[in-house]
Every structure is written in C-alpha cells, then in structure tokens.
Amino acid sequence: RGAKRFVFFEGPPTANGMPHPGHCLTRAIKDLYPRYRTMRGEFCERKAGWDTHGLPVEVEVCKSLGIHSKAEIEDYGIEPFIHRCQESVWRYMKEWETLTERIGFWIDLSEAYVTYHQSYVESVWWALSELFNRGLLYQGHKIVWWWPQGGTALSSGEVGQGYRQVADPSVYVAFPLLDASGAPTKRNLIAWTTTPWTLPSNQFAAVKSDLTYVVVRFEDDPEHEYVLAEPLAASLAEKKKTEIEILDSCPGSDLVGLCYQPPFD
User: Fold this and answer.
1) Residue range 201-220, pLDDT digits in tens
2) Mind spelling out the 3-state secondary structure of the chain?
3) Which residue ranges form the domains of the chain, and what is each CATH number?
C-alpha cells in the first residue's frame, strides 16, 4: 500500500451456471496483468465481482418452477421469485469461489461486489444521474429484442446465449504427397477438418509420431493411394460406401518431413 496503484475490478462472471475449462483460461489471463503489476512494485487491489442480474438466472428459475409466462411469475409472487433467483445465484457462486481458490487466482472474494446488492444498484442510479446532470444522456429510439415469456426487452448478448444443435460442415481433404523433384504423386495424405474455410491458407499437417498409419486404396478409386491413421480406415471406407485395401503401414514418425501440395497451389 502507498505505492503506485493499478486498479483491477474483475469483469464479473455471471453466476448462473457451473464454471467450465474456458473460464480457467479467462481467469488465468485476468490474473496475469495484476500479478505482473504487483511484481513491479505497484499496489493492485484485486476486487472480485458477481453478475447476478438478467435473463440467465431468471430462465433457469422459470424452468425449475415450470413457469412459462410473466403472469405465472406474478401469480407465484415477485418476492418469492426473487428469493429463488438469489438462492440459485448463491449456489453457483460457491462453486466459482472453489474454482478460484483451486486454480490460484489472486482476488479478494471477501469484499466482492454483487450486482443485486442495494449499494451496487444505487451506485448505477448515481452514475446515471451524474451523466444526466452533465447533459450526456439523450432520449431516442432503438429497436430491441423482446422476451414474451418474461415480458421484458433483451440485450444482444442475452439473445446470443441461446444454443441449439446444428450440423457442422466438415470435409475430408486429400493432400498429394510430393516426390524428390517436387512433383505430385498418386499417394495422398488424408485430413479431416470442420473448418474448411481455413484450407486456402493451409501449409502444414500434423501427425502423431507413435500412432500407426496405413496406406490404403479404395475400390471406387483404384488410381490413387491414401495415407491415414489406422483406426480411421474402416470408418472412412464405410462413409465412402466402398471396399478398402490396406497396402502398407508405418509409424507416424516416418511421415515427418514429407512434403505435400497445398489444396489451392
């Protein structure tokens, strides 16, 4: 204390679900800068925070109560509904605190700010009043999304939280292996990707050194040979709906250093 200050308020995680590996990454990044500043002799007060408002918490409570409309929320009772939301929030906050301690994230959990606390709500109103007094607020029109069940407007971030199962585009790509002179051969390295739009920039392929790879020929394409991981040979033949002939095998380490022709060269 007393040294140059570096202010760090954690952009609060939304306490509406269990933390997952992605949160470990973001918290490690959040920890990096304050830790660096502290090691440089600056005073960095790390204040934790919890985002406890908004759609995710209310949707989860509605699902648990079997509620499907704003009228049903009112019938259940506004105060009891708010209490159930707070119970949900605190359950997840405990899980987040456990994760924070386990990964060694330095932050003051004992004095965390919570967005549903009256002091925080009043601070937001105070900030808005200051902006109004300085002539920085204006009244206008904006088209927003609407949540019929809850009877409230939605932010673009809340709309983006909806998940659904989709068919992901994926392709198998044949990379022609090159001979010593740099000319393409009839033997191809097979790769599978779910991001085909990255293929124009492709320059390298990865192999697992201790995995067995096989050279195969498909019945419907006798002019070419293909190199792929042995455990995938049968499933690829099934997808192609054709017979497969295994010609040779080798460890992945034997493939290291080979050259192939990129797809769009």
Assistant:
1) 888 999 999 999 999 999 99
2) CCCCECCEECCCCECCCCCCHHHHHHHHHHHHHHHHHHHCCCECCEEEEEECCCHHHHHHHHHHHCCCCHHHHHHHCHHHHHHHHHHHHHHHHHHHHHHHHHCCCCCEEEEEEECCCHHHHHHHHHHHHHHHHCCCCCCCCCCCEEECCCCEEECHHHHCCCCCCCCCCCEEEEEEEECCCCCEEEEEEEEEECCHHHHHHCCCCCCCCCCEEEEEEECCEEEEEEEEEHHHHHHHHHHHCCCEEEEEEEEHHHHCCCCECCCCC
3) 5-137 (3.40.50.620), 171-255 (3.90.740.10)
